[in-house]
Amino acid sequence: MSSQIDHLLTETRRFAPSAEFAAHAVGTAELYARAAEDREGFWAEQARALHWHTPFTRVLDWSNPPFATWFDDGELNVAYNCLDRHVEAGNGERVALLWEGENGDERRVTYAELTDEVKRVANVLTRLGIGAGDRVAIYLPMIPEAVAAMLAVARVGAIHSVVFGGFSADSLRARIDDAGARLVITADGGYRKGKVSALKPAVDQALADRGGSGVQESVEHVLVVKRGGNEIEWTEGRDLWWHEEVPAASADHEAQAFPAENPLFILYTSGTTGKPKGILHTSGGYLTQAAFTNRVVHDIHPETDVYWCTADIGWITGHTYVTYGPLANGATQVLYEGTPDTPHPGRWWEVIEKYGVTVFYTAPTAIRSFMKIGRAVPQTFDLSSLRLLGSVGEPINPEAWVWYREIIGAGAAPIVDTWWQTETGAIMISALPGVTETKPGSAQVPLPGISVDVVDDAGEPVGNGNGGLLVVTEPWPSMLRGIWGDPERFVETYWEKFADKGYYFAGDGARLDEDGDVWLLGRVDDVMNVSGHRLSTAEIESALVAHEATAEAAVVGASDETTGQAVAAFVIIKQSYLTAHSPEGLAQQLRQWVGEQIGPIARPRDVYIVEELPKTRSGKIMRRLLRDVAEGREVGDTTTLADTAVMSVISAQVR
Ligand code: 6R9
Q1: Count of Cβ atoms closer than 10 Å to residue 426 Cβ
Q2: Residue 443 alpha carbon, nearest atom of ligand 1
Q3: Distance 225 CA to ligand 1 centre (A)
Q4: Which residues are paired to 577 by β-bridges?
Q5: ipTM for the complex?
Q6: Which residues line ligand 1 at a C-beta cut-off of 6 Å?
Q7: What is the dihedral of CA 391, 602, 347, 415, to 10 degrees?
Q8: What pLDDT does residue 211 have?
Q9: Ligand 1 mean position to 450 CA, how many Å?
C-alpha cells in the first residue's frame, strides 16, 4: 500500500475538458455555487425534475439521526418516472434498451414497448398477490426482462431484492429468507462464456432444501423467463412461465402514487461479519440522486447519446446506472448479457462500434484485463463515437487511467472516476466532466450537494496533504435508510464511530492532496475488493470452516494485477481428517467448495494449507502478516503475536 501512495502523490498530470465538451456539458460550475448557497433547496430543485403525483413540501427531516427522510410528504411512482412520462412526452418511439445477447441475439426495446411490458408484468404481480411492501427476489441474467421485472416490482410499490446470477443456491436462499420474499423471478438460464449457464436449478435447490432449518418457506411462486432453452424441472402450481403469463395479462395499468419513503429495494452487500447486510433504499430521494448524477456525471443528452454501463443488475451500479438513472432520464442504453471476452477478446469494443456508444462506464478490473491483452485488440474497432468514459468500483491506478484515456478514449474523452457505495445509492465523489480538470487516480471532488471530509480517528479533519478516514458529513437524498431487519447494525456499522459529529463512516481510507482532491486508498475494514465486488473475509472464512476438512481458516485480500485484490486463504486441516484422507488436491477442493458455497467470484486465488495462524494474545488473527506472505513480501512487525515464531513456520510452508 505505501508504495502505491508514494506513487499516487507524484502524479501531477492534469487533463482539462475540451472547450467543445465544456460548452455542451449538462453539469456546470453553477451547480456547485447553487448547492453551496442552499443545499436542501438545491436537492429540492433536482427532485422536481421528477414527476410527483403529490408534490412534496418538506425536503430533509434529520430530526432523528441517523434515520433521515427526504421529500417525505410527496408521492410518486418510480416506474412511471422511468417509463410512462417519456411516452406521454412523445418519446415512446425512442429506444430504451439496445440489447445484445452473448450469443449474438439482439432486441431493441422502445420506451413504449418497455412501458407496455412493465404494465403487463405489474398486472401479473397484482394477480399473484404482490403489493406494496412485499418482497420479490430477482435472479436473472442481463436480459430486458431483468429491467422490466425491477420496474414492475417498483410500479406496484413492492420491494425487489436482486441477487446476482453468479451467486450459489445457498447465497440465494439466505437472501430469500432474510427478506422473506414471496415471489422469485428467474430464468431457465442465460449465456455466459459461450454456453448456457443454468439459473432455475439454483432456485429449485434454494427452495427445496430446508434441511430442518425451521425456516418457514415464504416463496409462493416462481416466475420463469425462457432464455437459455435448457431443460429444467417444474413444480406445478408454484412455477409459472413469463412468456405465458405476461403476454396474457392486460397492458392497462395505471401507476399508483406511493410515498417518497416507500421502500424500493434491498440489496445485499458484504460487511465485516459473515452475514451479508440487506441495504435498504427508498423511492424519492434515491431516484432524485440516481437521475441527477447520471445526468451530470455521465453527461446524458437523451436525444443523442448511446450510453453503456457494463455492470450487472445484481450490483448497485446496475441498479442505479442501468435501471433507474438512465431510464428516469429517458436515455438510450446498451444492455449486454455476457462476459467481455466471449466469443473473442474484442467483444466489448465490437459492441461499442456496432451501436455507436458515446458514454461508457465500467470498472478498473476490466480495464486492467484489457491492458494485459494489449492495445491491438481495441485498435481494430472504430471507437470514435466515445466521448466520455467512466470508472467505478475500486481505485483506478494512474497507468490504467491513462491507458483508458489514450487507447479507448483516443486521448480526448474525459474520464470520470466515480466513488460511491451500495449504501450511498448513487455517485458521491467524481469530477464533473465539463468542469473539472481530471487527475489520473483521484476521484477528486464531492458532487454539488454532497459534503465529505477526511478525518482522523477522533473525527478531526486531517487537512490537505494528509490521509485518514473518509466520512460523509451531511445527509444526502439517496442514502441508505437502514439494514433490512437490523436497525442496530445500521447504527453501529455506519454511524457509531463518529456519533458525536453525526458523520457517516464509509469504511474507506482516503487522502487529501494539496489541492484538496480525494484519493481513495481502499477499505480499512475486513472487506476485500475483488474485481470491484465486495467480499468479506469473514464470509469466506465461514464457508471454509463449513468444509469437513477445515479446522480453522483466515482469509486476506492480496493485491492482484488484474482483479485489484484476490482472495488468499490460509487453512488449518483437522488432524482427524488427515488420518482418514490424503491431503492431495485438498487446496483445489477447498477453492471449489467456496465457489459452490458463495459463488465463483469468492473462490480463493490461493489456498495455503498451514499448521498455525498468527494470532495476537487476545486471539485476533493478524491478517496484515498473512497479507505480507500472500503478496510475497518480507513479513512485518510480529511483536504483538502470542507466538512470534509462527510466521517463519507459515512462510516456510507457503514456499
Ligand atoms: C459502487 C460500488 C463500495 C466500495 C467502496 C470503495 C470501493 C467504489 C470506487 C472505490 C476507489 C472508486 N470503490 N468506487 N474505490 N475509487 N471510484 O462499487 O459499490 O459494491 O458497495 O463497493 O468500493 O472501497 O467502499 P460497492
Answers
A1: 31
A2: 17
A3: 31
A4: none
A5: 1.00
A6: 269, 315-317, 392-395, 417-422, 443, 506-508, 520, 523, 529, 532, 534
A7: 10
A8: 60
A9: 16
Residues 6+ apart with CB under 8 A from 497: 503, 505
In contact, 590 and 545? CB cutoff 8 Å: no
- CA-CA distance, 636 to 622, in Å (whole number)? 11
CA dihedral 320, 323, 329, 333 (to 10 degrees): 120
pLDDT tens digit string along 35-81?
A: 999 999 999 999 999 999 999 999 999 999 999 999 999 999 999 99
Residues in CB range of 564: below 8 A, 6 or more apart = 364, 365, 368, 394, 395, 529, 530, 531, 532
Which ligand 1 atom is the nearest neighbour of the CA of 420?
Answer: 1
Backbone angles phi, psi at 465, to 5 degrees: 90, 0
- Give the separation between CA 619 and CA 614, rounded to whole angstroms: 9
DSSP of 345-370: TTHHHHHHHHHT--EEEE-HHHHHHH
| Atom 15 (ligand 1) nearest CA | 394
Ligand 1 centroid–CA 418 distance in Å is 8
pLDDT at residue number 1? 38
212 φ/ψ sector (left φ>0, alpha ψ -120 to 50, else beta): left
**Tens-place pLDDT, residues 547-591:** 999 988 999 999 999 999 999 999 999 888 988 898 889 999 999
User: Which residues on neighbouring strands pair with residue 452, listed in sequence order?
Assistant: 472
Please report, for residues 20, 324, 468, 509, 557, the alpha-carbon distance to residue 523 in angstroms, rounded to integers and kept in the order given: 38, 27, 11, 6, 10
Examine the pLDDT at 534 and tell me if it is beyond 90. Answer: no
Q: With a cut of 70, say whether residue 431 has pLDDT above it.
A: yes
Q: Which of 520, 524, 565 to mutate to test the pocket of ligand 1 (most atoms within 8 A of CB)?
A: 520
Cβ atoms within 10 Å of 212's Cβ, excluding its own: 5
Instruction: Tell the residue nearest (CA) to atom 17 of ligand 1.
Output: 419
Q: Is 301 exposed, middle or buried (0-12, 13-18, 19+ CB in 10 A)?
A: middle
Sign of CA dihedral 212, 218, 221, 224: negative
Cβ atoms of residues 327 and 85 within 8 Å:
no
